[in-house]
Amino acid sequence: MKCVIEGNGIKVFGRAIHALSRIGDEIWLDPLEDGLAVRTVNSSQSGYACFCFAPLFFQQYIPDPATKDSQAVKCKLNLKCVLPMFRCVTCRERSVDRCEISIKIPDGRVTFRFHCRHGITKTHNLGYQECEALQAVFPAHLSPNVLMAQSKLLGGIVVHFPVSQEEVTLSVSSLKVVLKTFCVEENDCIKGMNTALMLHPDELDYFQVGEDSDVTFCLKELRGLLSFAECYGLPVSCQFGAAGQPISFTVKDITLEAHVVLSTLTNPDSESSSQPAPRDDCPVKTPKASTAENSTYEEPMEAEVCVSDGERVASSQGSEMFSPARHMRKMMQLHAPEEILQRPCFAPESVLTTPVTPATFKIRSLLFGAVYNSGDGKAADFPSLVYASDTEDDGGTQETISFSSGLQHTSADLRRREVLTVITGFESGNKRFQKGVGLEPFCCSQLHLVSIGK
Amino acid sequence: MKFRAKIVDVGCLNHFTRVVNTVSKLTKACVLRLTCDHLYFVLSGRVATGGVSMWCELLQVNFFDEFQLEGVSADANEIFLEVAPENLSRALKTAQNAKSVKIKLTKKSCPCLTLAAELPSLSSLSRVVTHDLPVDVIPRRLWYDFREPQMPEFDVSIYLPPLKTMKSVVDRMKNLSNYLVVEANLNGKMNLKIETDLVSVTTHFKELGNPPWGEDGSQSSSRTHREPELMAETRVDIRKLQQFLTGQQVNPSRAMCNIVDGRILHLIFLHEDVSLQYFIPAVV
């Protein structure tokens, strides 16, 4: 992949990198046909961000050479290496004329070359980690509640909350929108300061409330996108549903599109009403069909719970603890015999890069439990697990296997497509998000991340 | 117990915010004493805080347009609350252009000081931002700890040099030593001294002027016979002094210090409607 960014675009790119750095520690560079996608996910997999730069953004954009056979490159870079390159650029704007980013597969390097004034060229070579790309599957267009507001308005609202404040609760009804700090009450006493403010629907550019809901998400992770949008005066749209379903924020422009998807805290009341997941040995299903069986989810695209052998996943469905090793074995049994089980098998071309609709493809997704401190010690090794889900054409028979990110394979053989669905489940006794390797149970919330290969 | 107050004037709001910011730089937690005429931010000297104590007095009418107080009882018409001034400072920070700020004592799941700022917004309705600050009500039996400090029987009282100068001197000295000796005499001379094994540094200030305390008879008669050239000194922890000087947001109209030889350094900063006193005990 090779691309060239000119002048102002470098500042935009730099700001995008900064916004991404607010969420995760690593970025995935994914050169696609229709643009360069730069993605990140946070360590607890409860927050995902993606900046897609259209070819129009670049002075020159060449994704991979058009040979079907060639290895599609998916690389993961440490943000600590990338950020310093763009830190100076945003302040010393006029010194850099051009920036070339190229990915050289044989060398295993990503090269950032900055052509600066006075004939100076700065070249940074970063080694990258090969991995599968990452993408959240979130059917934003199916969200019952949609708000759109000018970034300046949102910036002015968010400034009232202390920077250290992590979680906020957004409550909507048809009459008003309330944003307040999510407070944890201990011994009948609120800790720290509680801030609340109200917005009138008239202040928003677009206001659609399908159902009244209160969603709690991490504000800190959103600030990156908000400051990016404010720099460029772009409106921010926000799609969400009931508590527990992810909330997504989108900023769009002709040349780029940015998404931030954050998981939200589930309502503890809903846990008691959830039904156990259907038990199925061959859990390949259409998500649509699962809706009927899965009473917790209202949206057809929400993950269906896939269970095997009577094991249930720790989640708000009230499923039991998930055992990765056991599930992997189960998955392998589903393979066609001639397939080598070490490598994931890739589904054909049905994988989409945009939010999927039930009609177009079927995902089997696996819920897996987050770390339990009360469960068995083994579970503590896998704070989050990445599983390949299978995609099926109507007549397809290919299936995929799952593997845990702890065994992240570094195979260079990325010819075949794969679809990974990452679903993070959190359980909580104290109803808080936890970043990083959580050793405490969390409230259940779901974020779907789909990893795609080419 | 009831407390409601409202600030409408932007200038008053800014001034109040600055006072709160100053207090928040000095301590993490202090006592807010509310009476019908005054507000006091009180920090009583404790070993944990290094023995420093603070008394900040605000005249209520100069800040608030409305002020209603119903104390603990009719004969003790005051309220003592333990607050974290940093929270108050943060709540006021983004309300600087508010049309009005209302503060009242409420009870959510615990007693709170609720700050409601009415901000101008694009739509016709103004935006109201509410902040709830948890506070602790201090029972009457503990009020004695937070009484107004008595003016110590000082040996020398002197006006301080310009704050900016003094602050930069103290900042530089802090790099060299942990303890600073402040000495002054009744001839308007003040020295700031540090001494280490390797180096000793003294900064001399002269012609500072001495406040005319004698008339109100607050000092013992022995002081009037004090040698004008005789220096009174205290050795204090330099960080405490630096913290105090750094926290100042506004130049005071009067800044002076009283020194009790070998015992205490008493700093008094007077503004138009705010007075701030800070006591730093001497270290041996």
From TrEMBL, chain A:
This is Cell cycle checkpoint control protein RAD9B isoform X1. It comes from Danio rerio. The lineage of its organism: Eukaryota, Metazoa, Chordata, Craniata, Vertebrata. The gene is rad9b.
TrEMBL record, chain B:
It is found in: Cytoplasm, Cytosol; Nucleus. Its main location: cytoplasm. GO terms for biological process: double-strand break repair via homologous recombination; meiotic DNA integrity checkpoint signaling; mitotic DNA replication checkpoint signaling; mitotic intra-S DNA damage checkpoint signaling; nucleotide-excision repair; response to radiation; telomere maintenance. It comes from the Eukaryota. Keywords: Cytoplasm, DNA damage, Nucleus. Residues 210-229 are annotated as: Disordered. Belongs to the HUS1 family. Component of the 9-1-1 cell-cycle checkpoint response complex that plays a major role in DNA repair. The 9-1-1 complex is recruited to DNA lesion upon damage by the RAD17-replication factor C (RFC) clamp loader complex. Acts then as a sliding clamp platform on DNA for several proteins involved in long-patch base excision repair (LP-BER). Component of the toroidal 9-1-1 (RAD9-RAD1-HUS1) complex, composed of RAD9A, RAD1 and HUS1. The 9-1-1 complex associates with LIG1, POLB, FEN1, RAD17, HDAC1, RPA1 and RPA2. The 9-1-1 complex associates with the RAD17-RFC complex. HUS1 interacts with POLB, HDAC1, FEN1, PCNA and RAD9B. HUS1 does not interact with RAD17. Interacts with DNAJC7. This is Checkpoint protein.
